[in-house]
Write the structure tokens for this entry.
Amino acid sequence: MLDLIDKHKIPSHVAIIMDGNGRWAKERDKDRLFGHQHGVISVKEVVEGCAEIGIKYLTLYAFSTENWNRPENEVKGLMELLVATIRKEAESLNKNGVRLWVIGDLDCLPENCKAELLEATELTKDNTKLNVILALSYSSKWEITNAVKQIAEKIKNNELQVDDINEEVFASFLTTKNFPDPELMIRTSGEHRISNFLLYQMAYSELYFTHTHWPDFRKKNLYEAILNFQNRERRFGKISEQLY
Ligand code: FPP
């Protein structure tokens, strides 16, 4: 599989909606947290897989704004899992040149979770091999509304003029301002939805859906998605003949 991948056509940014942990657990008569725990193994595989083929940015949708509405014990369990995973993996991420970022409404996160994340992002801030961006308490509608509020505030204070607003300026108010737009978005577990994830940034992303549940997702599944991406023609509104 790896030898089929064209090293000159690696997407620089891959975004993933990690779905199906609950269904994977249910199929095994286990509770949902069991699925999330196994999902962490897939996270590690995919981080390694991205580093191996030279992907520079990996965004993982780990917890949406809407996920706060899940049963209390699941939310608590997910937060604990996140804290434990970051604590356990931060050193190894750092040694392997991974820089960790977090995007989302972090004020909603429990204090210990916020502190752990801040520590790990600080520890890894000089790394450049791979940027891993965790979308946590994130939703695009929240992000876009927030950007509009910041822009309105700047205009009110005369720090920005209406005529100065363009796509680039707008994007600089998004939480993703430090990253290129994803060229490829992968969603596992068979749902064909974007679920409030990077709506502005995915204007031209290729979308790839697989039936594999997230806890079963391995490097070879990532490479399958990359291969599929490489065989697509990205036209950005142009016609085929204009591309070559
Ligand atoms: C979606 O499956 C998964 C989540 C909401 C959580 C994803 C979190 C992890 C894999 C752990 C994160 C850890 C790190 C370090 C990033 P679901 O529960 O919606 O599954 P279902 O649709 O089958 O119910």
Q: What stands out?
A: Strands lie at 13-17, 57-64, 98-103, 130-138, 184-187, 206-209.
